[in-house]
Amino acid sequence: MKHILSIYVKNEPGVMSSVSGLFTRRAFNIDSIAVGTTQDPLVSSMTIVMKGDDDDLRRFQGQLLKLADVLEVRTLPYHGSVTRELMLVRVAAPVERRAEIIAIVDAYEGKVVELTEDSMLIEVNGNNRRITGAIGLLEKHGIQEMARTGQIALGFKADDH
Known about the structure:
Blueprint: E1 2-10, H1 15-25, E2 30-37, E3 43-51, H2 54-66, E4 70-76, E5 81-92, H3 98-107, E6 111-115, E7 119-126, H4 128-138, E8 143-148, E9 152-155
Antiparallel strand pairs: 1-3, 1-4, 2-3, 5-7, 5-8, 5-9, 6-7
């Protein structure tokens, strides 16, 4: 089962290493990790996606709260949250295949950010399903290079449903 941990930490050097080290010491893999500052420059938000059962999740929440730089830990429901990530991908794009590639980019509401004689650099953002779908269709064109951010997430407000 996938879980999303939203962790607010002090915006100081070494905090990400300390938090991710906890997972390493417990031999758990992190599916995704993203860190950035919040509206308060002294606080960063870490979003970690992990697999595990409910006991694993509770254990990690408790362990995280013991770290001095961790201010708050929340679990966000995986299907009750807005999640986003960003992908940059360079694909082979000979002239005769560009229209097909652009159609894929348009279908995923992406954009071409660079065009060369033989390649396109494409930007796509969205949830994990959207990114994975775009990759699946672009693979047949020859992915030359790719970078993805980790997922970021915010839960829905309970009173907005």
